[in-house]
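chain below, 308 aa
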Amino acid sequence: MDKREPLLVVDKLVQHFPVSRNYTVKAVNGVSFNIYPGETYGLVGESGSGKTTIGRSIIRLYDPTSGTITFDGDVISGGMDNNTRNKLRRDMQMIFQDPMASLNPRKKVESIIGEGLDIHHRFSSEAERNEMISAMLKKVGLSSEHAARYPHQFSGGQRQRVGIARALIMNPKLIIADECISALDVSIQAQVVNLMKDIQEDTGCAYLFIAHDLSMVKYISDRIGVLHLGYMVETGTTEEIFNNPIHPYTKSLLSAIPQPNPVLEKQRTSITYDYKSSGIDYASGTEHLVDGSHMVLATDDEFAAWTK
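prediction:
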């Protein structure tokens, strides 16, 4: 286990959305995990599993129903004083899934990227502000001339780079990347992910990397959490999850990864997993330690059967 102090501690996070008097959407149910400084924690799962909801709850776009979120030593899951709120806004940023919808179409790139600097007064003169924006554009692979353009004048990959620049300009300790490559072409995805890794080496920031693409998650992540129906069913290092999956849902996810080798692809068989017919009850399961940081959500009987 890592002996460092975690940057982010999510403890039994619950996020429910009342729809009517008789119906509540239970998006996240008691999820717990840590993120350490400078590491990338991958969060994977099918659509509707609660990945984006967790990211938005952590950055407080949603008010958590229950549970505790601690960021850099401060509890941010309840009411926050002004100092804690300002610290959260400075030191935690988010890269959104849709690079067009997350950028104000009426503002130039210069204003979009510089908004955080303006709010938190991070510059002493207009010239310093322009220099910081220009340097950040160059860091994400754009030029200083792009500052005068509007979002619609960019391609999807360039718009996502603007979104990354907006998050990075505050020099945050944690960046929540919510499916930030899913709307991009495959070749552009590789460019953006490599850019994120380079920036992490330069700045030492941590990532919560939310994605569908397991191959990309394997490439960028130090540890991985597997989410299903709002429950964290398995978490561990990248090697533990890919080389020794325990939970049947994790096995089914990994079996669905296409193989680039056509000979191996012909032999690949996908494992089907249906929660309703599986007899597994997530609500009655508890966390079981497999090895190191490898945890599985299961009842005692399930865990014994899966690991025998």
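The first strand starts at residue 8 and ends at 18. Residues 8-306 form a domain with the Rossmann fold fold (CATH 3.40.50.300).
thats it, cya
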